[in-house]
Amino acid sequence: MLRSAGRVLICGFGLLCLLGATVVTAQNTTRATATTLNYRDSQNPCKKRAKCELLEYSSCLGSTLTYQFTSTVLANDSTNQGDAHGKLVLWTGLKNVPRCWEVIQPLLCSVYMPKCENGYVELPSYEMCAVTRGPCKIVEEEQGWPAFLQCQDNNQFIRGCENEVKKIKFNVTGGCERPLVETDNEKSFYEGVEGCGIQCQNPLFTDAEHERIHKFIAGFGAVTVVFTFFTLATFLVDWKNSSRYPALILFYINGCFFVGSIGWLAQFSEGARDDIVCRSDGTMRIAEPSDGQNLSCVVVFFLVYYFMMAGVTWFVMLAFAWHKSFRALGSCKDALSGKTSYFHLISWSVPLVLSVMIIAMRQVDGDSLSGICFVGYQNHEYRAGFLLAPVAVVLASGLWFLGNGMFTLVKIQIDNPDILSSRASTKIKETIVRLGIFAFLALGFVFITF
């Protein structure tokens, strides 16, 4: 969502910059171009015959020109110096792409306001043109370069030519348009805009909205930590009687969500949120882990993602254990004998494999709104594959086992009304209600996740 919003903004000023190029293409089809095809100086191929005119403007893109005469023969979209000046103004939109603006100024001035002397105009060099292709690729992506700025034109751009414009010191203080900020870190560059990266704070939300969400996370996280801590403490106090399956699985579920909540609350340490979700250059953390950055983002991701996935996997184990236990009611056989080791193997290893895969593919992104690093903030297909799909499988499996368990209990109560004592019947009803509440909470969790 942020990427697409950023693309809209970049395209906005990109199209402004290229408006002149669009006009160029239209006019180029009707204007005679014989002067661009011949009349080169036979003794100096870096010059072309042209009618020299006294400069009407003493500067180009804010930099003072060191010569007095020019010609518009190289710019096919301009019939006079006024037109050329107007087209240059349109190109100033590229100030918002700093790396591009730094290299394109000499090229534009050498084409729109070249030095003209003794009936010959200086041609821009091929190197001056070629150096703009990488930093200014947004021009190619949005509208394409006009014909007279195509580096392949051997009549316009000559290799090795010296040019008076090269000696001019241009103002290279271009800046990035919000929500982009300047950065020298190539890994932080926004696609197509070299020298700019997405600011750390999510621009789609105001400071007040950030603060509101952070307060909610702090409150909800604190409540979760307190409740899970007391649940764990209750188990530990009476460990001898509590460490039996399937009840013991509740201990592991609470333990997972306790640690996961610590990951959520880590952002509330002094200065921690910026350290977690922001790079040192003030841009948003994307595609972590990356070289030159600390591991706080990856650590928080692991605490939140791994233990959340482990917790929901244990939920399936709990539903399965209840299902097997209910079916074994009335028999002396331990329904879970020999199966508990598989519970641990599945519940701890599957989330670990998923976490390692995400980190290996560098799909961990920071988000200032949530204050954590997680998978799929930038690439939603990874969020679907590593979060939504596993949670959907867990939900379907868990609810299937819970449904079977409830069906077994209901069947026992209906088929044995005379055998069951009132106490046993009441206990079965209470268990059915608890299972229903548990299933409802599971659905709520998945709904929030999606």
UniProtKB/TrEMBL annotation:
Single Gene Ontology BP annotation: commissural neuron axon guidance
The UniProt record lists the keyword Lipid biosynthesis: no
CDD domains linked: CRD_SMO
GO MF annotation list: patched binding; transmembrane signaling receptor activity
UniProtKB keywords: Developmental protein, Disulfide bond, Membrane, Receptor, Signal, Transmembrane, Transmembrane helix
InterPro entries in alphabetical order: Frizzled/SFRP, Frizzled/Smoothened_7TM, Frizzled_dom, Frizzled_dom_sf, GPCR_2-like_7TM, SMO_CRD
Principal location: membrane
PROSITE patterns (UniProt xref): FZ, G_PROTEIN_RECEP_F2_4
Positions of the FZ domain: 47-164
Residues in the signal sequence: 1-26
GO cellular component assignments: cilium; dendrite; plasma membrane
Membrane topology annotation: Multi-pass membrane protein
Residues passing through the membrane, by range: 216-237, 249-266, 298-322, 342-364, 384-410, 431-448
Location within or outside the cell: Membrane
Ranges of residues in domain G-protein coupled receptors family 2 profile: 214-450
Family listed: Belongs to the G-protein coupled receptor Fz/Smo family.
Name used for this protein in its record: Smoothened homolog
Taxon lineage: Eukaryota, Metazoa, Chordata, Cephalochordata, Leptocardii
